Amino acid sequence: MHGPVTERDESTSCIKDRAINFYHQYPQDIQLFAEMGFKVLRTSIAWTRIYPEGDEAEPCEAGLAFYDRLFDEMAKHQIQPLITLSHYEMPYGLVKKLGDWGNRAVIDHFEKYARTVFSRYKDKVKHWLTFNEINMALHSPFTGIGLSGEPTKQEIYQAIHHQLVASARAVKACHDIIPDAKIGNMLLGAVRYPMTCHPKDVLEAQSKNREWLFFGDVQVRGTYPA
């Protein structure tokens, strides 16, 4: 990992440093996508490109300008962007000050970030996702909500609740700022079927299915499943 002020030694640069190099290669990549017939491209805005520490008074113009160029390039090839606001990330500055999604104060910072990008790209992006696979928190609490160690179920569900509140606030802000936008979030899931008709297997399958419904119900119905 390279910090924001770390100098790279380009003499040792290799694929592990550059990955797909989308930051510099996006015009060529998007042209290839267009040649393949892509009409929609799902990608993410990095929260840290907009607010590097998470709590700055003003966003980073260089970061905002990059996404302007990216979305303009997509429009040139008639490709619609489908944009995720958070893909398992939080600015490290917020991590140091607030910890993780277990801290309700993170919600306000996420909403500020969301409002910033909605206002900036309201004429360029009409399809949004708040969080990638928001229910991943149940299976990988560190990845999904930043909880380290062995958190209790109460700690996990409290952090999930904060993330769902942040998602709801972002959805409301999006509809206020971009009335013709469509927004939701992505769920990781599949229907579980019992291995046998034994009651224990049936109950276990029902229990796992309810874990997915927990995240869907609160967003669609406005309540947690009873």
From TrEMBL:
Q: Does the keyword Hydrolase apply?
A: yes
* Record family assignment: Belongs to the glycosyl hydrolase 1 family.
UniProt keywords, alphabetically? Glycosidase, Hydrolase
List the protein's name: 6-phospho-beta-glucosidase
Record the organism. Pectobacterium araliae
Its GO CC terms are: cytosol
| Domain of life from the UniProt record | Bacteria
Name its GO BP terms in alphabetical order: carbohydrate catabolic process
Q: Show the GO MF annotations.
A: beta-glucosidase activity
Q: Which InterPro entries match?
A: GH (IPR017853), Glyco_hydro_1 (IPR001360)
Write down the PANTHER family for this protein, in alphabetical order. 6-PHOSPHO-BETA-GLUCOSIDASE ASCB-RELATED (PTHR10353:SF122), GLYCOSYL HYDROLASE (PTHR10353)
